Amino acid sequence: MQFRRAILVVLDGCGVGAAPDAAEYGDFGENHPNTLGHLATAVGGLNLPTLQSLGLGNILPLEGVPPASAPCAHFGKVQPHSKGKDSVTGHWEMMGIHTEVPFPTYPDGFPREIIEAFEARIGRGTLGNYPASGTEIIKQLGMEHLRTGKPIVYTSADSVFQIAAHEAVIPPDELYRMCEIARELLQPPHHVQRVIARPFVGDSPETFKRTENRRDFPLPPPPNLIDQLAGRGIGIYGVGVVPELFVYRGFRHAERTQSNPEHFAALLRALESDCEFIFANFEDFDMLYGHRNDPHGFARALEAFDGMLADLLSRIKPDDLLILTADHGNDPTTPSTDHSREYLPLLIYTPALERGRDLGIRRTLADIGATIGAIWGVTPENGTVIPLGREA
Fold this sequence. Notes:
- There is one protein chain.
- This protein is an alpha/beta fold.
- It has 2 domains: 5-100 and 219-374, Alkaline Phosphatase, subunit A, CATH 3.40.720; 112-215, Alpha-Beta Plaits (2-Layer Sandwich).
- The protein contains 13 helices and 14 strands.
- The protein has helices at residues 35-42, 49-54, 56-59, 87-94, 112-122, 134-148, 172-185, 225-231, 242-245, 260-271, 284-290, 295-315, 366-374; strands at residues 5-11, 74-78, 127-131, 152-155, 160-166, 194-201, 209-210, 215-218, 236-239, 253-255, 277-282, 320-325, 344-349, 358-362.
- A hairpin with a 4-residue loop joins strand 4 (152-155) and strand 5 (160-166).
- The N and C termini lie close together (6 Å).
């Protein structure tokens, strides 16, 4: 049948088992990942009736979520193609961009010439400059930051230059200006994927807490499906971090919401808009729980999302196509607090579907973009249209 609208929802960090090249990314041994599988075991089983009905338990063994005998969605998993295990490469790949050369990472901190140039431009020194968890580094350096006014610079296993600052010391607008300076300075070979503003509040290591005023400053993407669709006059509605990852290019509407409840409220507004393609990211799984090795919080967030999904399905129209996937893994049960290289879930639903079938393993997230583009006769550079069958 002909679809009128596509809705792509990304469950950030919800991987479904180690990809074949996981060891190349350091994900082996005690860090061997299976985000949803390990999570379900760690909490004694998940309660996800909506995702179960769609076929999530048909993708992988999942305690508490058995396979559906007649899944409501086509189900499968995706092996990521791009070199990287982060949100930028994952979302870009969905829109047809294959990143063949990994972006630079800094396990020993940034070169002195980068830090010195940054300090000269912002007119003050910096603290940190080493890989760290965002919550831990503000505990370690927050008091010195309050005393000196120096922003905290840090990185991770991802290609990121992060700047943390107390909102009373460096207000968010000033922090964003610093991030824009860093983005300008970080040119090849130091072209990190994202510069990220990380504001926080509190008056002691015990009370320091990051706020929802985070802002990302990514590299602009190469031409991609969003550009192609916008060029055809297709309205695109971005929710959460999605518009930022594409530097807001091509979006008719964009809502930089900051939490899963906010993302869902924006998604409902998007359904009432004139946009034909809705692209939303739900990031709490990754940001709040995966990076903090909190399986119970991760499970609660999934169960809350499952209730939102039930509401969403009740609003899906017969000519809508809903696709659920993830951008990378983030196993909260391993010692690592970084993203993990994993297969990603794939669930494709439309009310016209009588019974879903097994899509097997897709070899790139770009297949999602190719399938969405086909609705309007648009072919992205990479990816193959997923055959959905006559019943869809």
